[in-house]
Structures are given as structure tokens and as C-alpha cells.
Amino acid sequence: MLLELNPLITPNIGLIAWTGLIFILLVLILGKFVWPTITKALADRERSIEEALKAAEAARMAKTDLENEIEKIRQEGRVEREQMMKETRQVASKMEEDAREKATEEYNRILDDAKREIDSQKQNAMADVKNQVSKLSLQIAEKLVKEQLANETAQKQLVETYLSDIKVN
Amino acid sequence: MKNNILLSIKFNLYSRVALLSVLFSFFLLTTATASGGDDKPFNITEMINHHILDAHEWHFYTTTDEAGKEHHVSLPLPIILYTEGEPAVFLSSEFHHAENGIVTKGSYNYKLSHEHIQVVDAQGNVQSDIHPMDFSITKNVTSMMLASFLLLIVGFSIAGAYKKREGKAPKGMQSFFEPIIVFLRDDLAIPNIGEHKYKKYFPYLLTLFFFIWFNNLLGLIPTGANTSGNIAFTMTLAVLTLIITNVSGNKHYWKHVFAMPGVPIPLLLIMIPVELIGIITKPAALMIRLFANITAGHTIILALIGIIFIFKNAILGVPIVPFVFLMMCLELFVALLQAYIFTLLTALFIGQAVADDHH
Q1: Does A30 sit within 8 Å of B207, measured CB to CB?
Q2: What is the pairing mode between strands B116-120 and B108-113?
């Protein structure tokens, strides 16, 4: 037979036995102590990497959310600030107007008072002056009359004058 | 029919052997013309066979003294025999030291003839009716033990690294082997066997891959043994694949063998034998592929080196050494590739046996 002629393709029982024994022992030893450790470590690491990636993604999302939130809050703040500024400006201008109005009123009132005071003072002063003037006039007239009527002629002339006036009427 | 299938399996092997024998005859012809001197003619077939076949000692080199006597420098290996219920254990060097090369142990005389241990009578005549069972720790077994020892060292060291550096990035040897293990898991075991079923077979597949690879690599070292190119070695691994495949076979697998769905009953009479032969031929192809590839690789390298000795001209080393270097590089790749293919096909067969019905 061809198989027995060529030693190259004639399997030897001893080598079969040794190969089987050594290989099965290797499968048992490596399968018990080596491969499970390695495959478990690999699976664990892959899981932890996956989880880390997920966590990173979640963190990234959270960061984006937070940034959006911050932007929103900032926007709101800006709007609110503008609103407040606007209101303040309105209040301020209103206050200013009120103040101006009030001041004008006061001014007018003071002015009126002053005018009235001045008028009354003027009246008083005028009355006073009139009194003085009348007194003085009387005094002057008295003096003049005294002086002019000191002689007889002058007294007669006057009487005549008055008489002439009466005649005219 | 069986012969046809067996022939087709052997075609791969035969084409290589045919090619090599053409090469050899050319070398032998040139030897005849070139070595017409007084030296013993260099027999390349003998040289290649000596390197490729198993041996009972580990031969390193041979020196010739002034008297023309050859001195072999080799490591003697233990011979373990079991003859008709009688064990015998001794070192292979006893054959060289004994008179006429006949070693007497117990009630039998042993003689080593072309690496084949025979039982002889006191005169040295072969007793062909007594067949000693040879369980010797041969060169191949020694090399296999060495490879296994290396694999154990590597395995335990990287497993230790995974324990010690838990959760950290791989380092050193660990980072060399990790991509291979991950590749075997993600691109070999899972696609062929399936996400849920692969775990049970993965330790076996890993051991198979590294065992073949390490043995292939050790065989490439000069003076190394051709362990993974030995038919007994590949046969054992193929038989284990056969056993695992058929033991794991589920009802769909057996239904495909004995009652192929959609095949008319008369045709089943043909299909069942074909399927049954297929059960054997699938692992047989594994056996022959690994054996032929590794043996052919060794043979080509030895043949190229042999050219220098055929022509007895060292200058020939100038063109041949780069060739051998190239072949060695190719063989390094083949060592990995064949380990991968054997494991891949084993995974594929297991996957077919455990697959759920998808028809």
C-alpha cells in the first residue's frame, strides 16, 4: 500500500499519543488558568472603555445643556436689565417732570406772594406819602397863607378873588 | 466515490510532491555528474528525509576526523517501547554504543533501522511478527514539549500581566498577543460560531491556534524538528476537531446529515453516504493541509540549501542564501497563516454543527 511505503505519510502511534496527551493537557491548563483570565480582563476593559465613552458623551451633553442654560439665563438677564433700565428711565423722567412742575408752582406761588406783599407795601407807602404830602401841603399852605395874609391889601385881594369866582358861577 | 473524494483531498499534496520530485530528480542527475570524485556522493533525498522525518535523537551536526570517520553530535532522547505487554525504557544513545546496534531489554532485542525500531533475534534477523509499540520521546515530541512549555510561559506571563495591570493598557508581551487574541475572538470565533455559543469553544480554539503556531515557528529554527509537518501531529489535531464537531452537533446538524431538508427520499440514499464521508473528509483536509504546507516549506528550504552541497561549491551560497532568506520569510508567514486556517476551519465546522436552523 502506498500509505505504508512512504514514511512521510505514515502516522506513528507514539507521536499521536504524545500529541494528544500534550495538547489536551495544554487545553486543560490554559483553559483553566490562562484564557479565562485574559478574556475576562479584555471584556472588562472593553466594558469600562464603553462606559467611559458613554459617561464622556453624557458629560458633553450635560455641558452643552448647561451652556444653553447659561446663555438663556444671560439672555433673560439682559432683557430684564433693559426692562429695568427703561422703567428707571421712565420713573426718572417722571420724577424730573414732577419736580419741575412742583418747582414752577412754588415759584409762581412765591412770586404771587411777593407781588402781593410789594403791592401792599406800596399801598402803605403811598398812603404814608400822601399823608406826609398832605400834612406838608397844609403846613406850607398855612405858612403861605400866614405870610400872604399878613397885610391888609393881600387879604382884600383874596376876598375879591373869591368874590369874583362866585360871580362867575 | 470514496476514492474520488480522497483523491481530490490528496491533490494538493500530490501536486506539491510531484513538483518537488521533479526538482529532486534534477538535483540527483546533477549530483551524479558533479560528484565523480572519491567522496561519498551527497544524497539530497536522504538529507531532506532525514530532516523532515521524526528521529529518536536530536542531531545537531556531524564532523569527520582525519581517518574519515564520522562523529555525530546529537542529544540522545528516551526510547519508550511496549512490546507484547512488556515495557522497555532506555536512551537512544545505547543503540550507538551497543554491538551491532542491538539493544537487549527484557526478553527482546531491539534494533534501530531508519528510525524504525524493530525486534530482532540475537543474530540481528528481523522478527517481523512482533511489532513493538513505539512511545519514544522523539525529536518531534521534544520539540512539541518545548513549544508547549514556551506557550505555558507566555500564557501564564500574560495572564499575570492582565491580573496585575487590571484595567490598564497592555504592555510588552501582553500588547503583542492581545491583538491576536482579540482578532481570533472578533474575526474568527464570533463570526463562525456565533455571539452566544463561541465562549464554550474559544479556549480550545485559542490553544489550538497558539499550539500550531508555536510548533510551526520552532520547526523553522535550523536543526529544529518538523513537528507540525508530521502527519501524526496534524492527524491528532484533526481527529480532535472531528470529535468536537460531532459531539457538539445539534439536531439540525444531524438532520442535514441524515435527512437533508428538501431532498427527495430516493436521493437521500446517495446523500447520506456523501454526508457521512463529508464528516471525515472535512477534518482530513485539515490534516493534509497543515502537513503538506509545513513539510513542503521545510523541503523547499532544504532543497535550496542542498544545491550548495550537490555542486560542492560555496560560491553558490551567494545566490542561494537570499533565496533561502526569502523562503524563510515566506515560511514565517505560512507558519501564522496555517495556524490561522486550521483554527478558522475548526471554528467553521463547529459553527456548522451548532448553528440554529435558518431555512
Answers
A1: yes
A2: antiparallel
- B18-66 pLDDT, tens digit per residue, is 555 555 544 444 444 444 344 567 888 888 888 888 888 888 888 888 8
Burial class (CB in 10 A: 0-12, 13-18, 19+), B192: buried
H or E segment at B5?
helix B2-34
ipTM of the complex: 0.83
B residues 193-252 closer than 8 Å to A (CB): 199, 202-204, 206-208, 211, 230-233, 235-237, 240
Beta bridge partners of B74: B59
Q: Is the pTM of this model over 0.80?
A: no
Q: Among residues B350, B340, B341, which one has the least CA distance to residue B197?
A: B350
C-alpha torsion B26→B32→B35→B39, nearest 10: 120
Query: Using the beta-carbon criterion (under 8 Å), do B230 and A15 form an inter-chain contact?
Result: yes
**CB within 8 Å: A22 and B182:** no
Sequence ranges of the domains in chain B: 78-134, 139-354
Q: Report domain extents, chain A.
A: 10-151
- Quote the DSSP letter at residue A8: G
**262-291 of B, contacting A, C-beta below 8 A:** 291
